[in-house]
Amino acid sequence: MFRTTATTTAALAFIAFALPAAAQSVSGTVTKVDAAQGKLTIDHGPIKNLDMDAMTMVFRAGDPAMLKGLKAGDRILFDADRVNGQITVVRLRKNS
User: Fold this and answer.
1) pTM surpassing 0.90?
2) Where does the UniProt annotation place the signal sequence (predicted)?
3) Which domain holds residue 25?
4) How far apart are CA 13 and CA 47, in angstroms?
5) What is the DSSP string of 38-71?
């Protein structure tokens, strides 16, 4: 019993530290959409999982379809994370 519990505890501890921080939704305002490059510029609040302060910056769109119908001035909620070394919007929805 002890061996199983110790093994399970060790495995859970490894998973907790090995996985990247979970993305969390951040509010922002789109300032530019570059559909041809698959990028968008967002004026956003702090992004905790990336240890990033509030700023305006360019993000890669994880899925080019998320840029359809999006325009400068749109208020959004989004999740961003590092994907293949690039800061990427992985989830996005318009915020009314």
Assistant:
1) no
2) 1-23
3) 21-94
4) 25
5) TEEEEEE--BGGGTB-SEEEEEEESSGGGGTT--
